[in-house]
Amino acid sequence: MPGTILVWVGVAVIIGVIYALIKQFETRLVLIVAGLVMCTVAGDPFLALTEFSKNMVLVTLVQTILAVMGFACVMKVTKCDAHLINLLVGLLSSVRFILVPAAMIVTAFINVSLPSAAGCAAAVGAILIPLMISLGVRPAMAAASVMGGTFGSMLSPGLSHNAYIAEKLMSTDVIHVIAVHYWADIVCILVGAVVLGSVAVFLKENKGYVPDADHTVLKLERPNIIYAMVPLVPVFLLISSAYLGAPDAPEWAKSTLSNMPWLNKLPVPIAMFIGAILGVAVTRSNPSQCVKEFFDGMGNAYASILGIIIAAGVFVAGMNAVGLVDAFIEILKNAGSAARWAAAFGPFLLAVITGSGDAAALAFNAAVSPHAEKFGMTVPHLASLATLAGTLGRTMSPLAGAAIVCAGIAGVNPLEIAKRQAPGMIICLFVAILMLQ
């Protein structure tokens, strides 16, 4: 079948997927069938099956998500989460009207230290999402507030895109690249938080929700502060590891790492294991029951969260098979005088469709951004616009790993998160265009 026809078949399948998801068909079924159809039309049905098999063992993502959800279950059985939530509910009950935007800003701040969107969403979401639900925020909005902060990584020296622009396009250090777009990043975070908070008020999802059995947290008259601190330990360890191991870290930080080498580049799963062990020890809970709950949590996470990620991988494989992604990237490369608009809308749309902001942004930056002066822009501004646009698009994609993680913690469909994120991310896209032109 000619390539052009294959591309249009891919477009038709995507329209069908959007329709099926809106109608709330089983997400995993829709994505797997769509990917299999596209791979079959392209003449390689086994590509879909191969991708399914490969995504079952995405080592980093599997380890992170399973460990976080196992840790969350241990926190539940030890009641450490209840102590933390009851403690914070009392402190935050008077400022419920700013909970949604505040959660997004806090997540963005932490995402600077933990630049992995899925890792940050898992670590932060395990704490903030149950807390917000307990304070009356609807689960989908609670999940959206955490997901919305996962483009704070634009400010991180550890973000691969910042390093790519610095090394390949500018021959400078990462800090100089971040200096180009940091104001746009900060303004987008604030604008996104305000818009999401407004959406929450408009939909009446910022207060008044009565948690169901799945989200109910034990009410405690006197929360134990020590127990309440345990759920925060993994996040503290991860942020400390990122700060101490930063390239520009002070001498005392380097000395600290030399004395505690295990803290250097601490993986998310190990931080969660430490937190779980500490929770069992501090509360003197039954170790056998805690281990059982940990593994039960891992199993449920694989089915509900990783299942969608695996299915999304099959869908993306189908789009690649029919040449849809390549065709889209080729359009970006040949954007000509419209490059600044292509740098924004191209990566943004592809990220929404695929759940990844990497492919289009990297391709655009490799092929087009070096010639930015022809379009009346500088290289760092054009490259930064493409990167930020891709990140914003990923933040409102129902197929993004971070969205699926947040949806799993909240017990909602990822599409519900995407719908709430859409207004803010679209407005942020125009803000980025104005600030980085």
Automatic annotation (TrEMBL):
The chain crosses the membrane at residues 6-22, 29-50, 56-75, 87-110, 116-133, 140-160, 180-203, 224-246, 266-283, 304-329, 341-364. The keyword Transmembrane helix applies. This is C4-dicarboxylate transporter DcuC. The gene is dcuC. PANTHER family: ANAEROBIC C4-DICARBOXYLATE TRANSPORTER DCUC-RELATED. InterPro entries: C4_dicarb_anaerob_car (IPR004669), C4_dicarb_anaerob_car-like (IPR018385). Its main location: membrane. Keywords: Cell membrane, Membrane, Transmembrane, Transmembrane helix, Transport. It is found in: Cell membrane. The lineage of its organism: Bacteria, Pseudomonadati, Pseudomonadota, Alphaproteobacteria, Hyphomicrobiales. It is a multi-pass membrane protein. Belongs to the DcuC/DcuD transporter (TC 2.A.61) family.
